[in-house]
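2024-03-11 09:14:02 INFO receiving multi-entity request
2024-03-11 09:14:02 INFO entity count = four
2024-03-11 09:14:03 INFO echoing inputs for audit
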Amino acid sequence: MLSKTFAYALRAVTYVAVHSKEGKKVNLEQLSEGIDVPQPFLGKIMQDLVRQGVLKSMKGPGGGFWTDEYSLKLPAFEILKATDGYAVLTSCLMGKKNCNSSLPCPLHAEYALCRDTLFDALRNTRISDLAQKVEAKEIFLAEDN
Amino acid sequence: MLSKTFAYALRAVTYVAVHSKEGKKVNLEQLSEGIDVPQPFLGKIMQDLVRQGVLKSMKGPGGGFWTDEYSLKLPAFEILKATDGYAVLTSCLMGKKNCNSSLPCPLHAEYALCRDTLFDALRNTRISDLAQKVEAKEIFLAEDN
DNA sequence: CGAATAAAAGATAATAATATCTTTTTATAT
DNA sequence: ATATAAAAAGATATTATTATCTTTTATTCG
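2024-03-11 09:21:47 INFO inference complete, emitting structure
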């Protein structure tokens, strides 16, 4: 339902948001170590996030990634769109096959509810909310953090 | 969260359960066509289901798969165990890394609730329940079914 | 202007899930 | 005993996801 890529992106954006509040840019190496994700793959993911307007970036000395006022207000749902695209919104156990509430698969009722609940949570959570939770130590971005 | 393999297995077991009520065995070719799943791969999945005691099987002329009184009473959760194993029970966006309610990842609350709700539904649904729903045309096992 | 930093991009590889193909084994019917 | 049917099992292939490596481009600083 949710890819590992999305999980990496969620942690990455949250980490960058936390550090942006200190006026700092986060470079890829620091980010990779901070959220315990392979750096080369993370670089790819960050490109998609920048391309989709979720984060800002700059090359060169003192370069890196950061969030601005605008992106802090974005719902976490934008991260899902940047990594997994729209297909997950209607994903189901039937995969690509037609499955809906009038032609449901064996687990449709529960699965669709589950999926929609999760996606609603992402729509209702701003990136700034996630950063606040990290600062309040309510959520963690890596194991030994 | 839930694999395509599990989705195939759920439909397969349900299909076999429906046809067992007619006192029939279902062979692999019929089953593959009935639920629209690639036959060779399905054969593999069925072996695990038989090995785990979810279904019965017999080789040779008139052979195939069937459910008995015992297996009809099994919760659908047994299908999940046969296909995806135990790791999914505690799966999270952090993957294999330690994540729990005292050291939660960014989406842990929603994700764990979602996962547990889905798994509870599987625990509380018997294979016979699924077969009944197919017969009542409340759920479908393939698109043009 | 050039060196160093650091993201961006392209190419390639590894792994896991899904899928296919071939052979073996088992069971029944004649 | 043999042929046929059909599951079981092993081997292999494809696809998608995750991951790594190399090169290019952009930016800053001295």
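2024-03-11 09:21:48 INFO post-check: Residues 3-5, 38-41, 44, 58-63 of chain B lie near DNA strand C (CB under 10 Å from a C1').
2024-03-11 09:21:48 INFO post-check: The CA atoms of residues 4 and 83 of chain B lie 10 Å apart.
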